[in-house]
TrEMBL record:
InterPro entries: Acyl_CoA_acyltransferase (IPR016181), Diverse_Substrate_AcTransf (IPR051016), GNAT_dom (IPR000182)
PANTHER family (alphabetical): DIAMINE N-ACETYLTRANSFERASE, GH14572P-RELATED
Species this chain originates from: Myroides marinus
Keywords from the named record: Acyltransferase, Transferase
Xref: SUPFAM superfamilies: Acyl-CoA N-acyltransferases (Nat)
Stated name of the protein: GNAT family acetyltransferase
Similarity annotation: Belongs to the acetyltransferase family.
N-acetyltransferase domain sequence ranges: 1-150
PROSITE patterns named in the record: GNAT
MF terms in GO: N-acetyltransferase activity
Classification via Pfam families: Acetyltransf_1 (PF00583)
Length: 157
């Protein structure tokens, strides 16, 4: 198994993994991003994210998508947006290797925190993260405003 930086040619496989994750998270119709979006936003002059992939026998079986953020308390941080291994390859160590590589990148870049969200019903992931030394913050809520909310808010001013 090989962990490597993704290329624009990998984005079709990455999008398939994103869709698989959305289905796993019980939101199969939520994915709006396209291959073209991923290529444009991840590989242009000012990329908005990084992607690493797990590859086995020249086939992408997993990916981790992450980006830099800035914390007013910690300074430079990394947000791990998604880490997914295709269902048939779970339990092979691919997820651990992707996770470990994100942490290695964080260490090399001198970031002070890596953060991500996990659904409260995803016990295998929660247990894995806790076992790895991560802290699961149960007293914080993730807050989002979608496109419709942004439009409504903008019009209410």
């Amino acid at each position: 198994m090989n962990i490597r930086p993704a290329t624009p040619l990998d984005m079709t496989d990455v999008l398939a993994l994103i869709q698989e994750l959305a289905t796993f998270e019980k939101e199969p119709d939520a994915v709006e991003v396209t291959v073209e979006d991923l290529v444009r936003e991840g590989f242009g002059a000012n990329p908005l994210f990084n992607v690493i992939v797990a590859e086995l026998d020249n086939r992408i079986i997993g990916m981790a998508l992450f980006y830099n953020r800035f914390s007013t308390w910690k300074g430079k941080t990394i947000h791990l947006e998604d880490l997914i291994v295709t269902e048939s390859m779970r339990g092979t160590g691919a997820g651990y290797k992707l996770y470990a590589e994100v942490m290695n990148i964080a260490k090399r870049e001198g970031v002070r925190r890596v953060e991500w969200v996990v659904l409260n019903w995803n016990d295998p992931a929660i247990n894995f993260y806790k076992k790895s030394g991560a802290t699961v913050l149960e007293d914080w809520y993730t807050v989002q405003m979608d496109h419709n909310g942004i439009e409504q808010f903008s019009q209410s001013k």
